[in-house]
TrEMBL record:
Residue stretches making up the ABC transporter domain: 2-238
Domain of life: Bacteria
Localization annotation: Cell membrane
The organism of origin for this protein: Planococcus versutus
UniProtKB keywords: ATP-binding, Cell membrane, Ion transport, Iron, Iron transport, Membrane, Nucleotide-binding, Plasmid, Transport
GO cellular component, one term: plasma membrane
The name this protein goes by in its record: ABC transporter
InterPro entries xref list: AAA+_ATPase, ABC_transporter-like_ATP-bd, ABC_transporter-like_CS, P-loop_NTPase, Siderophore_ABC-ATPase
Single GO molecular function: ATP hydrolysis activity
Amino acid sequence: MLEANSLSLGYGQTKVIEDLQLTIPKGEITVFVGANGCGKSTLLRSLARLIKPQTGEILLNGMGLKKQSTKEVAKKLAILPQTPLAPEGLTVLQLVKQGRYPHQSWLKQWSEEDESVVNRVLELTDMKEFEEKTVDSLSGGQRQRAWIAMTLAQKTDVILLDEPTTYLDLAHQIEILDLLFELNEKENRTIVMVLHDLNLACRYAHHIVAICDKNVYSQGKPEEVITPQMVNDVFSMRCEIGKDPLYGTPVCIPYGKGRKI
């Protein structure tokens, strides 16, 4: 269980999130949506203890996050930032192996389980054939998949991902989101993501949190949250909401200029 109580976040004197209350549903996929600069990524990073709250606290399994050791938190919660950087010359295999470090100590070195987990996530993310290539030699999409593999290798119950489909073409976006959906379905992983695409958010999320004006505008099931009024208030954009013909989830159709048929 991941919770935020009376949470305020900011940079210097500028507040980005103010007095926010939030409970992340356990064992579900939660997606944060909102306009650029509304605080989605800041909120996600604070849930991983990468940003210190100005006020309030974050609880992981009922205990204050700041009271738990970094290693203990890393065994329960993994995060993939928006634009991670790898040291020059690091191979994909070396990068993914770093995800196993929280599970090791001077008494417990690299194990068969570590090897098995690393191989599995390389295959899951379709990166096995690139394992000896350096991360900086990969395309943007391949690089993103390598980082996702490292995050999965940490094998935590909670996974936080900041725009995990960045740099990916449509086919690989669906592939990665399908993978995360499968992890949730089969292994009951709690997954929290920031996504810009409202239609993909509706298709994959059990729970959507719309952020606006430094707080939660609305939250709940996609069909409860994604409404013309929400899109207008949060994104300043008029739209119609339809239904996905394949999955029955909400589809946002924005007004705007375009080619008429």
